[in-house]
Amino acid sequence: MRLGVFSKFKPFRAVGLMECAGAASILIAGLVLVQAQPAAPAYSGPLLDAHLHYNSEAWNGQTGPHPVADVLQRMQRNGVRAIVANSRPNDGTLLLARLANAQAAPVSSEPGTQAITVVPFVRLYRNRADYDTWFQDESIYSMVLTELARGTEAGPFRGIGEFHLYDSANANGPVAKKLMALADDKALAVLAHVDDVAIDLLMANTPSKGQRTKLIWAHTGLTGVPVERVDALLARYPLLMGELSYRPGLTCTSDKDGDRGTQHLCPAWRALLIKYPTRFLIGSDTWVNQRWLYYDELMQGYRAWLGELPPEVAANIAWNNGAHLFDLPPADALR
Ligand SMILES: [Zn+2]
Questions:
Q1: Distance from Cα 113 to the centre of ligand 1, integer Å
Q2: Cα separation of 72 and 75, whole Å?
C-alpha cells in the first residue's frame, strides 16, 4: 500500500455469534424460527505473514515507535512464526534478520515466545521518490545485485519487492524487464503491487513466460479485479500466488439478525480460495505505522475467516503455501 488511503484502512472485524450461511430456518406452526449455529472456531495454527514492511519510520534508523523488540512481540503474540520481510530502505530488513536470527535458538516452545523465521526480500526503494522511477532506474538494478550478493544474517534474500506499478505499461520499463528475468533465472520470488494487466506484462518479460515465475500478487488486485479474472490468471501462471491484504470483496458484512455487522468470507471468494487451495497467502502490509498498531486485529481477522474454511485449506493459506514457496517446515511440524 502507499500514501493517502487511510479511508481504506479498516482492520477486519472479529467474526460474530453465528455464521450467516449456516443459519437454519425451521417452519413450525406458521412461525419462522431462526436457529443460530455457533460461529466456526478461529484458525489456531501458525501464521506466515507474507507481506510485511519494516520501514524507516517504524524505527527511524535506531529508535522509533516500533523497535525490533516491539514488532517481534506483536508477531509472537499472534502466532506469526515466519515473515516475508522487506523495508524502505533495506536496513530494516537486515536488522530484523539479524535480531530474529540471534533469537533463533528456541527462545521457548511456549506460545508467544517462539522464534520467528525471516524470509528477506530486497526492496527496490531507497526513498519515496524511487516508487515512481524504479522500473527505468539502472542504479536500482545495481542496488538489487549488490544486496543479493551481500545477503542477510538470516540467509540469502529470497525475493524482490514489494514494488508498485501505478501505470501497468511500466511493466515494460527496461529495469522492470531485467528484474523479472533475474527473478526467473535465480528462482527468486517477486512481490508486486500491480493490476491484472501488469501481471500479464511482467510474466511475458520472463524467460519462462510466467511458467516458472514465483510472483506474489500483493492484494490480489487492489482495484477489485473481478474474481473471474483472478481465476483466469491463476490458471495461466502455475506459480502465481495471491496475497490477500486489503483485497476488496474478500469479506462481506452480515445483515442477518444476531450476526449483523460481522465479517465473513464472501461466497465468490470462499469458492475461489477452495478452488485454488495452494495459491493464496495472508499478509499484514505494515506500510505505515498505523498498521503495526492494528497488527493484533489484522491477524485476529485472518484467523476468524480462515476458521470458515475447511481446515486443510485454512492451514495452507495461513502457513503451508508460503512454507512450500520458501522451504520451511509444514504447519503440522510446528505444533
Ligand atoms: Zn505493501
A1: 26
A2: 5
pLDDT, tens digit (0-9, with 9 covering 90-100), for 41-59:
999 999 999 999 999 999 8
Cell numbers for 246: 486489503
Beta strands 24-28 and 189-193, pairing class: unpaired
Q: What are phi and psi of 3, to 5 degrees?
A: 55, 125
Measured in angstroms, how far is the CA atom of residue 218 from the centroid of ligand 1?
A: 7
**Number of Cα atoms under 13 Å in the Cβ half of residue 45:** 19
Nearest in space to 206 (alpha carbons), one of 230, 229, 164, 238: 238
Residues β-bridged to residue 328:
none
3 state DSSP class of 312: helix
pLDDT tens readout for residues 210-239: 999 999 999 999 999 999 999 999 999 999
* Pair 207, 231: CB distance under 8 Å: no
Backbone angles phi, psi at 26, to 5 degrees: -125, 125
Q: Look at phi and psi of residue 112 and say left if phi exceeds 0, alpha if psi is from -120 to 50, else beta.
A: left
| pTM for the structure as a whole | 0.87
| Ion ligand 1 residue ranges (Cβ < 5 Å) | 162, 285, 287
Ligand 1 midpoint to CA 246 (Å): 10
- Answer yes or no: are the C-beta atoms of 57 and 289 closer than 8 Å: yes
Closest to 241 measured CA to CA, from 332, 326, 122: 326
Q: How many CB atoms lie within 10 A of CB 288?
A: 18
Instruction: Report the distance separating Cα 79 and Cα 299, nearest Å.
Output: 9
Q: How far, in Å, CA of 149 to CA of 186, rounded?
A: 12
